[in-house]
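Researcher: Next sequence.
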Amino acid sequence: MFVSSLALLSSLGLYLAARTLAPQRTSAGRGRRRLLTACAVVAVGSIVVELAARRLAPFGGGLWRPLVWSERVATFLCLVAMVQMVALRTAAAPFAWAAAIVDRLRARVPPTTAPVGPEMSRREVLLQALSAGAVGASTTAVLYGSLRERHDVETVDVRVTIPALPPSLEGLTIAQITDLHAGIFTGRRELEHVVERVNALRADVVVVTGDIVDNNPAHIRDAMRLLSKLRGRLGTYTVLGNHDLYTGGAAVQRALDAAGLPCLVNRAVKVHTGDVRRGALTLAGVADVMARRHNGDVPPDLDEALRGADPEAPVVLLAHNPVFFDRVDARVAVQLSGHTHGGQVNVGGVARSVLRYVAGRYTRGDSTLYVSRGIGITGAPVRLAAAPEITRIEVTRHHT
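Model: Next structure:
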């Protein structure tokens, strides 16, 4: 249903763009029929490609990758064009009304120059020019975001204060990656690069905060084989995200545990330097907020995760969706999340108008939330103003 809805909207975007950019060729007759045929081909073609690729595309996409890339980028451009056409026509409406009023109040003067075209007013010519400019600019930006920015992984250093941190853990480092979406667009080459970058940080703890596999259960084995090479001096830990649930939460969890990447579903572990008597940190994880008990998934339960944990030990919580921060209390010193992709396409900070937590650091009382922009993509293989991220978190007792 979701794919079908996007297909219909993209075909509508193509229709509006064509009618605006070439109104004389698409208003009637053969041109109109060709346009409607093209819209139908776009809608049906995108549905067929998506459904077939979900079943047939190998890990990393193989020969399906360029086909799915072309379909998703074209669909995204059609959706962007639809928004642009609606916005331009809405913005132009008051001027059209004003012109109509002026025409009614004054006598019409015979034109001194030849008309622009037999069926196009000057307002339509201006709208056409603005639309062409908008489509050209958005196409350039989308291609840049797909071919360049989504591959430009940044390493972000973050320092977080935990006043109750034991002296033995002062300066502890946590490398966080999230939202890998292993599958068609995050394959062997991409995962090997990320694992190499993370291991080069030589972090004490490595965490993967969900959406590890995109949607295909057939990709689980290949993803785990590569992720099993992640190395944290004191361990590597994971939690599930909503896409892991779409793939099959129980299957992903079993594969993570088997690969030596313990999956913390409503449970916790102690992190210490070898002697727990010198102090420890509680690393806890909760299930994703989109888990549904009637689907056989385990819903998030912070109380269950911290059951039996040392009440004196500070808690670092792994929760895929940052909205879980609204449910935590003073027991949690730091929550590490992903899910948002930093908006993925966040030009002008538009994601902040629809998401409570987008990317970066948020605080409430003595608790800190950090939201990583993640590695992979969902939907269109495009990132704009939201570059992929590997995060290196250093915890300290001292105020920074």
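Model: The chain is about 40% helix and 15% strand. The chain has two domains: 2-147, 155-396.
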